[in-house]
Design a protein that fits this description.
Elements: E1 2-11, H1 13-32, E2 37-46, E3 51-59, H2 62-69, H3 80-83, E4 88-89, E5 94-98
Antiparallel strand pairs: 1-3, 1-4, 1-5, 2-3
InterPro entries: ABM_dom (IPR007138), Dimeric_a/b-barrel (IPR011008)
Protein name: ABM domain-containing protein
Domain ABM: 2-77
Amino acid sequence: MMIARVWRATATPAGAEAYREHFTGSVLPTLRRLAGHRGAYLFRLDGDDLVELEVMTLWESEEAIRAFAGTDITTAVVEPEAQAVLHSYDKKVSHRKVIVDPTNPPT
Protein backbone atom coordinates (compact mmCIF):
# COMPACT_ATOMS: atom_id res chain seq x y z
CA MET A 1 0.00 0.00 0.00
CA MET A 2 1.13 3.54 -0.75
CA ILE A 3 -0.13 6.75 0.91
CA ALA A 4 -0.52 10.12 -0.83
CA ARG A 5 0.02 13.18 1.37
CA VAL A 6 -1.72 16.27 -0.08
CA TRP A 7 -1.17 19.92 0.83
CA ARG A 8 -2.41 23.16 -0.76
CA ALA A 9 -1.31 26.79 -0.89
CA THR A 10 -1.84 29.98 -2.86
CA ALA A 11 0.71 32.47 -4.13
CA THR A 12 1.14 35.36 -6.49
CA PRO A 13 2.57 34.31 -9.86
CA ALA A 14 6.04 35.42 -8.73
CA GLY A 15 5.59 33.65 -5.40
CA ALA A 16 4.50 30.46 -7.19
CA GLU A 17 7.68 30.52 -9.27
CA ALA A 18 9.75 31.13 -6.14
CA TYR A 19 8.00 28.19 -4.45
CA ARG A 20 8.70 25.98 -7.48
CA GLU A 21 12.38 26.83 -7.17
CA HIS A 22 12.28 26.08 -3.43
CA PHE A 23 10.47 22.80 -4.08
CA THR A 24 12.95 21.59 -6.69
CA GLY A 25 16.06 22.93 -4.96
CA SER A 26 15.32 22.10 -1.32
CA VAL A 27 12.21 19.99 -0.75
CA LEU A 28 12.82 17.29 -3.37
CA PRO A 29 16.45 16.62 -2.41
CA THR A 30 15.42 16.30 1.25
CA LEU A 31 12.53 13.96 0.47
CA ARG A 32 14.66 11.75 -1.78
CA ARG A 33 16.97 11.00 1.15
CA LEU A 34 14.14 9.72 3.36
CA ALA A 35 13.42 6.02 3.64
CA GLY A 36 9.90 5.24 2.52
CA HIS A 37 9.49 8.27 0.26
CA ARG A 38 8.14 7.16 -3.13
CA GLY A 39 7.73 10.36 -5.15
CA ALA A 40 6.44 13.92 -5.20
CA TYR A 41 4.43 16.18 -7.48
CA LEU A 42 3.84 19.92 -7.55
CA PHE A 43 0.68 21.04 -9.36
CA ARG A 44 -0.18 24.60 -10.41
CA LEU A 45 -3.50 26.19 -11.36
CA ASP A 46 -3.32 29.81 -12.51
CA GLY A 47 -6.17 32.05 -11.43
CA ASP A 48 -6.93 35.69 -12.17
CA ASP A 49 -4.78 37.09 -9.35
CA LEU A 50 -3.41 34.11 -7.43
CA VAL A 51 -1.97 30.73 -8.28
CA GLU A 52 -3.21 27.60 -6.53
CA LEU A 53 -0.44 25.16 -5.66
CA GLU A 54 -0.92 21.56 -4.62
CA VAL A 55 1.80 19.23 -3.44
CA MET A 56 1.36 15.48 -3.40
CA THR A 57 4.03 13.31 -1.85
CA LEU A 58 3.92 9.53 -1.90
CA TRP A 59 4.94 7.33 1.01
CA GLU A 60 5.13 3.62 1.71
CA SER A 61 3.74 3.87 5.26
CA GLU A 62 2.58 6.16 8.08
CA GLU A 63 5.89 5.41 9.80
CA ALA A 64 7.75 6.88 6.83
CA ILE A 65 5.52 9.97 6.98
CA ARG A 66 6.25 10.35 10.71
CA ALA A 67 9.98 10.35 9.98
CA PHE A 68 9.34 13.41 7.79
CA ALA A 69 6.46 15.19 9.53
CA GLY A 70 6.75 14.21 13.18
CA THR A 71 4.25 12.59 15.53
CA ASP A 72 1.16 14.40 14.22
CA ILE A 73 1.26 13.45 10.56
CA THR A 74 -1.64 15.81 9.75
CA THR A 75 0.48 18.89 10.49
CA ALA A 76 1.91 20.52 7.36
CA VAL A 77 5.67 20.93 7.09
CA VAL A 78 6.18 24.40 5.63
CA GLU A 79 9.68 25.80 5.91
CA PRO A 80 10.15 29.54 6.58
CA GLU A 81 11.56 29.99 3.04
CA ALA A 82 8.29 28.62 1.64
CA GLN A 83 6.12 30.64 4.01
CA ALA A 84 7.86 33.82 2.83
CA VAL A 85 6.73 33.37 -0.80
CA LEU A 86 3.22 32.02 -0.24
CA HIS A 87 0.04 34.10 0.06
CA SER A 88 -1.68 31.45 2.17
CA TYR A 89 -1.21 27.77 2.95
CA ASP A 90 -2.96 24.92 4.70
CA LYS A 91 -1.69 24.18 8.18
CA LYS A 92 -2.99 20.61 7.88
CA VAL A 93 -2.56 17.98 5.19
CA SER A 94 -4.76 15.11 4.11
CA HIS A 95 -3.77 11.53 3.44
CA ARG A 96 -5.23 9.11 0.93
CA LYS A 97 -4.57 5.45 0.23
CA VAL A 98 -3.37 4.91 -3.31
CA ILE A 99 -5.61 2.17 -4.67
CA VAL A 100 -4.42 2.18 -8.31
CA ASP A 101 -0.78 2.83 -9.20
CA PRO A 102 -0.14 2.76 -12.95
CA THR A 103 3.61 2.38 -12.35
CA ASN A 104 3.02 -0.82 -10.40
CA PRO A 105 0.10 -2.68 -12.02
CA PRO A 106 -1.52 -5.57 -10.13
CA THR A 107 -0.27 -9.02 -10.98
